Amino acid sequence: MGSITADTVRRLPKAELHLHLDSGFEVEDAVRLATENGVPLLKEPPDAMFDWEDLQEFLTFLDWVLCLPRDAEQVASLSYSVARRQGRSGVSYTDLMVSPIHWKNFDGPLEEFIAAVASGLEDAERDGYPPVYLSISISRKHSRAEAHAVLDTMLAMQHPRVAALSIDGNEALVGRTGDRFAPVFKRARAAGLGIRAHAGESSGPEGVWDAIDLLKTQRVDHGVRSVEDPELVEELVERGIFLNVCPWSNVLLGLYPSRESHPIRTLVDAGARVTLNTDGSGFYRITLEDEYVTASEVYGWSSDVLRQLARTSVEASFCPDPLRAELLAAIDAFDFGS
Ligand code: ADE
Ligand code: ZN
Asked: Of residues 64 and 232, which shows the higher confidence score?
């Protein structure tokens, strides 16, 4: 069988589950907004702004770039831009995170911000781009009261585009916060929202234990450092926890020195339910189809493994059930060619 091409992967139905609006839009959008708003670039030439040594440097850049959008129209244009990118990669469905804590110059309350993001996604879907649903992300830096306030807004809005509560941020800076956020996640679950948590990237295995035992999530974003604790890997397999893994992001932000040394293959071989994602395709200058093609090259994965990764992405997603059934049938019937 020949090698698997980006073109083939673009045609393969699949979901992307680990993508942030905060880093998913186009680099050109960021530069255009800075110019439009008269804000000097952080570094020149513009490409230099997209080189980070580690997660903290990247999060500092996010704080700068996400201060650029000020009104609903600018925010909606960025979420539209992400949906269009997803369409270009042949992504059938996306669970998109957005972390309001970064968007400090947005001129309005949280509900207006969420409505603006959602309206860009709705416009994009009307224009023929694939469905994108939202996970509103609280930050590991938030207090418990601040996190409850974000959830209050989500529950008051009952917006049909909002599927889940998420949490992200640098756990290496703030330490273990599972106890602080457990009551917030409990309320979200009780209200019927999906839940998901970043863990096992800037935290070690203990962060993943906290995410599954205290936040009680079935979906861990990253989770790759679970490999450091064999008992945890067994538990993840036993409980069927989904790990939304982003190999290039982990290499780019310095967690692993190379694709070859990335633990995704160990996790897949152990039977963990893994999905492939970009984390921030726009700013990381990668596409989801590149992730699939590179994984097949570096880990020697056949089309059967890629089909399974695509299946798992749809199974784990928060997409509406009729679409889930349709996508799973299309993945099963997909012809990779010879
Ligand atoms: N927020 C955006 N990207 C992130 C990452 N890679 N880890 C933790 N929080 C994030
Ligand atoms: Zn992430």
From this structure: 232
